[in-house]
Design a protein that fits this description.
CATH superfamily: Rieske [2Fe-2S] iron-sulphur domain
Strand content: 35-45%
CATH class: Mainly Beta
Number of strands: 10
Distance between the termini: 36 Å
Largest sheet: 4 strands, antiparallel
Bound molecules: FE2/S2 (inorganic) cluster
CATH architecture: 3-layer Sandwich
Order of helices and strands: EEEEEEEEEEH
Helix content: under 10%
Length: about 120
């Protein structure tokens, strides 16, 4: 598979109306799909302020405002827009093909066994 061309099915576009959002799990990651007049955006469904889901938080123009403590993030870039946190939300590239939303999200590393652990025999 070509690097940077690793898009996978996320949702049918018809299942995400403008002004709505949907949490999905892609490759072990919780991803929040948001659709606005401007397009479809994919963010990590994890507010970096207190590591809580962003799902259910209101979208205000090009921003999402965490429903817990009010941190606002640009939904295109994930950059914080107020002083609640200085940490960004991860965002993922999205493309629409034949009515399907596809997202390029790297897999979560799981089951990794470091070489030294194998060699130690413990
Ligand atoms: S958990 Fe999102 S602002 Fe605190």
């Amino acid at each position: 598979m070509m690097p940077g061309n690793d898009y996978i099915f996320a949702l049918n576009l018809s299942d995400l109306e403008i002004g709505t959002q949907r949490a999905v799990n892609l490759r072990g990651r919780n991803v929040l799909l948001c659709r606005t007049e401007g397009g479809v955006y994919a963010l990590a469904d994890l507010c970096p302020h207190a590591q809580q889901p962003l799902a259910g938080s209101p979208i205000e123009g090009k921003a999402i405002r965490c429903r817990l403590h009010g941190a606002r993030f640009n939904i295109l870039t994930g950059i914080p827009l107020n002083s609640v946190t200085r940490k960004s939300v991860a965002v993922f590239p999205v493309r629409i093909r034949e009515g399907v939303i596809e997202v390029n999200v790297p897999p979560v590393a799981t089951g990794y066994l470091p070489q030294f652990a194998i060699q130690s025999g413990k």
